[in-house]
Backbone:
C-alpha cells in the first residue's frame, strides 16, 4: 500500500500545538489510520519540527504517514484584528486546508482538538470547504449545570455557548463531533435538532498497560518498600493544585512521600526548588518527559494519585490510569474528574483545597482506601473500562469509515 499511497486520498490531521497530551491524540489518530490502511498527513506549526512526534514521523519516512509544517500567515498591517481567538484559529485551519488540498487529494479531515475554532463555525462555516471532517471537543462545559456536574455558574455565557453549539453542529461537512465528556451526547440528544452532525462519546484513553508487581516497581525506582507514596503525574503546572498540596503536606504528621513526575513549567520549578526542603520525607521529583516503562512503574508503586486540580473541568487521562492500576485518587469535586470520582467511588472528594481538607483526604486515603465500591460494578466499570486505546481507535475508525 505504501508504494501508491501518494495516489490515494489522504486523511488530513491538523493540530498546531503538540504540547500537553495533544500530541498523543495525534499519534493515536495516525496509528488508527495506519491500522485501517488510510494514508494520512499531520500538519502542525514549524515550531514543532523538533518535537519527538515530528522527529519520529520524519525518521520513519513512510509514504502513508506524512508530516507538513504550516505557520499562520503574517497579518497585513492594514487588516483589523480578528474579533477573538476562534476567528484566528479558523483562519489557520482554512489556510492549512487550502495549501494542502492543492497538492494532495483529501478524503477526510480529523481535528483532534476542535475547541480552537468551534464557536466560530456558525459565523464562518467549515474551514475545509466541502470536504467531510470529524472534530473532537474536550472543553465544552456550558451544559454541565444541566447534567449535575459542578462547574462555574455562568448562566449568560452558558446560554450563548449552548446556542452557538447547536448552530455549530449543523455546519456543512461536519460528519461527527466526538466528545470525551459522556454527558454531552446525553444533553445533545434532548436539546439539539435532528438535522445536526452526530455527537458521540469517545473515551479519553490512556495507553493500555497492566499493573506491575508494586514491590518490583519500587525496587526499580529506588523507593522504600515500607513508605507510603502519593503521585502527582503529567504536565506539572500550578493548575494541578501542587502548591496547595505541598503546603498541606508540610503541616501533616506522618505525611506520605510525594512523587512529582512530569515536565514542570518555570513557575512550578521555582516553587518546588524553594519548598522542597520543607517536605519530610524528602520527595522524589522527576522533572522530565516520562517514558512508558517509568510511567507503569510509578502507577504500580504509588499508594494513591493526586487529582486536586484547579479550574479544570474536563476529563483526565491520569484518572483513567489510576483506575486501571487500582489506585485511589484524591480529587476535587469540580468538573468531570469530580463527577467520575464520585460516581465510580475512586477516593475521597475535596470540597476545597485548604490544608485541612487536603490533610483529612490524605489520611483517609492512606488508611481506608481502596475499599469495596457501593455502586453496581457494571455501572462503574462500564464507564472507565472503555478508556482504552483500542476502544478510542475503534470509535474513531467507525466515524471515519
Residues:
Amino acid at each position: 500500500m505504501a508504494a501508491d499511497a501518494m495516489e490515494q486520498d489522504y486523511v488530513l490531521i491538523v493540530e498546531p500545538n503538540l504540547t500537553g497530551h495533544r500530541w498523543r491524540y495525534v499519534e493515536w489518530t495516525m496509528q488508527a489510520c495506519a491500522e485501517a490502511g488510510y494514508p494520512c498527513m499531520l500538519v502542525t506549526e514549524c515550531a514543532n519540527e523538533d518535537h519527538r512526534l515530528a522527529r519520529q514521523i520524519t525518521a520513519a519516512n513512510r509514504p502513508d504517514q506524512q508530516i507538513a509544517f504550516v505557520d499562520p500567515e503574517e497579518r497585513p498591517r492594514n487588516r483589523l484584528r480578528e474579533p477573538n481567538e476562534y476567528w484566528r484559529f479558523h483562519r489557520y485551519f482554512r489556510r492549512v486546508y487550502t495549501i494542502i488540498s492543492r497538492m494532495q487529494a483529501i478524503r477526510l479531515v480529523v481535528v483532534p482538538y476542535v475547541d480552537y475554532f468551534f464557536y466560530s463555525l456558525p459565523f464562518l462555516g467549515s474551514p475545509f470547504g466541502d470536504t467531510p471532517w470529524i472534530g473532537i471537543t474536550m472543553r465544552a462545559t456550558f451544559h454541565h449545570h444541566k447534567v449535575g456536574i459542578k462547574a462555574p455558574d455562568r448562566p449568560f455565557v452558558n446560554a450563548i455557548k449552548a446556542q452557538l453549539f447547536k448552530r455549530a453542529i449543523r455546519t456543512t461537512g461536519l460528519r461527527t463531533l466526538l466528545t470525551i465528556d459522556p454527558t454531552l451526547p446525553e444533553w445533545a440528544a434532548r436539546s439539539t435538532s435532528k438535522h445536526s452532525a452526530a455527537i458521540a462519546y469517545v473515551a479519553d484513553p490512556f495507553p493500555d498497560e497492566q499493573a506491575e508487581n508494586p514491590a518490583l516497581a519500587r525496587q526499580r525506582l529506588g523507593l522504600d518498600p515500607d513508605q507510603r507514596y502519593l503521585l502527582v503525574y503529567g504536565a506539572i503546572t500550578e493548575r494541578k493544585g501542587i502548591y496547595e498540596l505541598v503546603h498541606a503536606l508540610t503541616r501533616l504528621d506522618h505525611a506520605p512521600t510525594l512523587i512529582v513526575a512530569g515536565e514542570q513549567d518555570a513557575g512550578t520549578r521555582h516553587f518546588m526548588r524553594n519548598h522542597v526542603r520543607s517536605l519530610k520525607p524528602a520527595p522524589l521529583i522527576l522533572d522530565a518527559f516520562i517514558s512508558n516503562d517509568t510511567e507503569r512503574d510509578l502507577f504500580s508503586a504509588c499508594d494513591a494519585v493526586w487529582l486536586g486540580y484547579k479550574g479544570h473541568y474536563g476529563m483526565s487521562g491520569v484518572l483513567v490510569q489510576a483506575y486501571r492500576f487500582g489506585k485511589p485518587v484524591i480529587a476535587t469535586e469540580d468538573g468531570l474528574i469530580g463527577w467520575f470520582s464520585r460516581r465510580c467511588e475512586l477516593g475521597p472528594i475535596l470540597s476545597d483545597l485548604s490544608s485541612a481538607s487536603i490533610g483529612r483526604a490524605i489520611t483517609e486515603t492512606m488508611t481506608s482506601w481502596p475499599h469495596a465500591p457501593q455502586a453496581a460494578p457494571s455501572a462503574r466499570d462500564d464507564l472507565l473500562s472503555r478508556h482504552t486505546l483500542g476502544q478510542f481507535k475503534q470509535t474513531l475508525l467507525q466515524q471515519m469509515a
